[in-house]
Design a protein that fits this description.
The structure is a single chain. Helix 3 (53-71) runs antiparallel to helix 4 (76-107), helix 3 (53-71) runs parallel beside helix 5 and helix 4 (76-107) runs antiparallel to helix 5 (113-153). The N and C termini lie far apart (71 Å). The protein has helices at residues 21-27, 34-51, 53-71, 76-107, 113-153; strands at residues 2-4, 11-13. A hairpin with a 6-residue loop joins strand 1 and strand 2 (11-13). The chain has 5 helices and 2 strands. The protein is mainly alpha-helical. The chain has a domain at 50-154: Orthogonal Bundle (Helix Hairpins), CATH 1.10.287.3610. A two-stranded antiparallel ribbon has the order 1-2.
Length: 154
Amino acid sequence: MTLYSENSETVVSMPETKLSPVERSLSWKVATNLLVSFKYAWQGVSYAFRTQRNFRIHVVVGSFAVSLAIALRLAPVELAVIILTCGIVLTLELINTALESVVDLTVEQTYHELAKIAKDCAAAAVLISALIALSVAACLLLPPLWQLLWPQLF
């Protein structure tokens, strides 16, 4: 399959896939019940944890931030903000992993500038969310941590 851009200068060649009806029907299989849907979702989380170093880092740092918030007895709203922020980072990391897999499937073993842009932008979304999460954690965790440690220092 060949796709043309609006200005007709760029030609994108997409690999043709020859899937048998059986293989294709399995790709559209719908979960039979809610429990199966959760199983599939958990497989995605498990895959990301096993294969994505950055996902593991985000899980560890997020767990530390939530544990510290609990230990410092932050207000429930502050704790919820930290949990939400960590959840957003993990969610974007999962979306980044999915997008990278789809892009890799599409371009196979070839380099394509648009594939690079897609992957770089998805990674940038994770980076920005992680930096914002760090800022939120600093705003909420540093003041009570400072109050706890300040008398100890002097």
